[in-house]
Amino acid sequence: MDYLYYKAINWDEQEDQVDQATWLKLTNNFWLDTRVPITDDQPSWHALTAQQQAQVGHALAGRALLSAFQSELGAPSLRAGRRTQQEEAVLNLITFMESVHTKAVTTIFRRLTDEETTAAYYAWADGQAPLQAALTDLTKGIEGDDLMRRGLFLIADTVLCAGFDWAVLTQPALAQTNQMLKNILTGNLIFRDYLAYKFRQGIAELPFAKQEALVAQLTKGAQSLIKLAHQQNEALLKDAGAANDLVDFQWRMLLVALGLGEQPAESGPVAHQIDQLANQAQETVVVETIKDVDATEFMSDDDYDF
Questions:
Q1: According to DSSP H, which parts of 113-174 are helical?
Q2: Which value, in Å, is the radius of gyration of the alpha carbons in the chain?
Q3: In 3D, which of 185, 42, 32 has the Cα closest to residue 110?
Q4: Helix, coil or strand: residue 102
Q5: Is 268 left (phi over 0), alpha (psi -120 to 50) or beta?
Q6: pLDDT tens-digit readout, 34-67
């Protein structure tokens, strides 16, 4: 770095316009779990069988565990490899939103079920051997190379969550719960595009031999984590085939974002939903510096209508 750590950030002096564009995307996408009317899902929730409720509850708890890891270990580990001061500000936003994603699951449970059942869902997630093995691998991995940390963060945020997402999004009657998950997914996809961009920047600066070695290491780690994700799906679902397909689809999509693969075909309706969210997350944000206070759009009560 060619600046002192304690230098104030001047957002008009930018080394990388993508930092500010992503900041705007994330702040425009800002939401809080308490603004989604989950109580509207109560009739649909009670219409589910006990088995369906358990499947959705376990899936949400599993996703919450991954988001908690990302907020506490994954996202903070990325700061050491920041390329600009603005990037660190974006990483702070990502860390905060991962915490929101974690809390969102508790909000869903609070509106739909009781404390005892909620505790049982979380205990189930905490006791899943494949999930805990994946978290162990991720914890070891983020102690290494910065680009490897970025790759592993993205695998945890997209690939490992895919089976849990499938279990929830295939219950469309839970409309508000689905909306909460789509809010989370949209954030994850913005994180993916931004961090993959930074990954591409970093890997392009490496000699070819080191590029090959890094890609081989990341692919090996991904295949191990994908295997664990498949095992986790089989522990959660009676027929894990479609969920496993979504895991594989998310990995291929991540390879595209990292500049290491070609666009895959969609693998089912849930993959189509995620692909649509990805397209929305990639919409261009025009970066403008406001010079006149009269051009500023002030907040109103309508801004809190979600």
A1: 115-126, 129-141, 146-154, 162-169
A2: 20
A3: 42
A4: helix
A5: left
A6: 999 999 999 999 999 999 999 999 999 999 999 9
